Amino acid sequence: MARQNTESYAILLRHASAVKEEVNGENPLSDEGIVQSGCVAIEIFAALTGLKVTKVRILHSHKLRAQQTAEIIHKEFEANNISAEIALAKELKAGEAPEKMQAKLIQERLVGNGATVLVGHLPHLHKLAQILGFDALSEEDFPNASGVLFEFPYLDDTAEEWGMIKKIGD
């Protein structure tokens, strides 16, 4: 039986550097964080277009710094005429069980050269990576504006493991 086009990718990305809470309680991106976001956006765009990705969904947590990081990534795709949707994912909220985000990621994955970028926080992203089977990753693998790109396993029983392709950022 011929395999359907099931290539699907995801990126777990920590937000870029933010202003300290005592300076601004909303923790927006700092000037450094804006630059970091721009650099990682270019890297993500290059990695995903190199994989022939044609559909992109960017999901972010409710915190401003994650939303701003996601918006900068979104602008990179739009500037290069590749449509990308951006949305809030309540499953990325601190305190939510990472299994909820795992279920959403699997259920809503973009099949057929699609990618989902998750912009969130520690320790949530690290816990999600552990659930997905990336036991070798530690929290140190998620500095600001950094994360991992991986391929989903096929859904037709030809593969069972998530395949890490590369680290992003840093």
Please tell me about this protein's structure.
This protein is an alpha/beta fold and 170 residues long. 32% of the residues lie in helices and 21% in strands. It has one domain (8-168): Rossmann fold (3-Layer(aba) Sandwich), CATH 3.40.50.1240. It has a six-stranded mixed β-sheet with strand order 3-2-4-1-5-6, with helices on both faces. The longest helix has 20 residues, at 31-50. 38% of the residues are buried. It starts with 7 loop residues before the first strand and ends with a strand.
Share of helix, binned: 25-40%
Radius of gyration: 15 Å
Measured distance between first and last alpha carbons:
42 Å
Give the DSSP E fraction (strand runs of 2 or more residues): 15-25%
Strand order in space, largest sheet? 3-2-4-1-5-6
Low-confidence stretches: 1-5
Question: What tags apply to this protein structure?
Answer:
alpha/beta; globular; six-stranded mixed beta sheet; 170 residues; Rossmann fold
